[in-house]
Structure prediction request, 365 residues.
Amino acid sequence: MLRIKDILNEIEHYAPLSLQEDFDNSGVQVGDVDQQATGALLCLDVTEEIVDEAINAGFNLIVSHHPLAFRPFKSITGKNYIERCIIKACKNDIVIYAAHTNMDNAFGGVNYKLAELFGLGEVRTLSPRRDSLVKLAVFVPESSADTLRKALFKAGAGHIGNYSSCSFNAEGNGTYLASEECHPYRGEIGVLHTEKEIRIETVFPEYLKSSVISSLLSVHPYEEPAYDLYRLENEWKTTGSGVIGILPEWEDELIFLQRVKDVLNVECLKYSPLTGRKLRTVAICGGSGSFLINDAIAAEADIFITGEAKYNDFYDVENKILLAVTGHYESEICTKDLFFAVISKKFPTFAVQNSVVNSNPIKYL
Prediction:
């Protein structure tokens, strides 16, 4: 029996909730995740029309990009569309789940999907996260070092950029004196023992700490393994805000802007004065990404594409970069396809459907 929480666990494996920003409220919004899953409806925003769409399809899971519940409630009386959606979902045993900034920040997330749509190569994160990595140093007998390394890597440790199974290993001697209450791996009670050991160092994202340490303890031969954890200030280069990549060939500014309009189905594309230069390096951040304009300039991008920007941003870029603003909805509607791919890859026979409702609250005349 496939339960809703099995679907959500797969999404969170791809985009862990720990990657969301402090202001966000990603995760389960409404409902019982232990119930059997009947189908998933995918959307950008949850509206009453979308809840009705899920009911009519017989689906009891709605996966959205933007959270329905963003602020605390003192009461739920149906006075606005958010409360009416919650009431209707509860009456129909529907789970509403959001993967917002965690899906924005994840490697392979929303901005990587946009880069794929524009055919960019050599894609990397524009503004990598910091203070999210941990270094583990653990001491283990030589005979058990290989087993321990494999367990740590299986738990998710040892990834640096596109490399996996990364570790540093140094030989040394460990000593211990076992008391009467001990059951030492080697040596005698009350006698100082010296053991040839390997110091293994590896790194992992902080959110994997429990699983990494659990794996360590499950295979380490010592009764009391010695290990150290260090929080790192290093950039986590595959995770963070925005992306930057390279077009296959140089393009004229207006031709590329028209392609942006066509690819994202934009009715009204806003852009800053043309620079008169051809484009090759493209920076992107879906949604409200204007905070990354200076990062895009520093990375020597020729154009920065985002969903929202302020009036003065079009002045501030001057001739340093071309700014293209598509609209928030248009810049993130591809998230539905991303959800579809993540769920269908793991559960190919499960009923998954993109919502056909246009939930964009902004209309164009």
Notes: The longest helix spans residues 335-346.
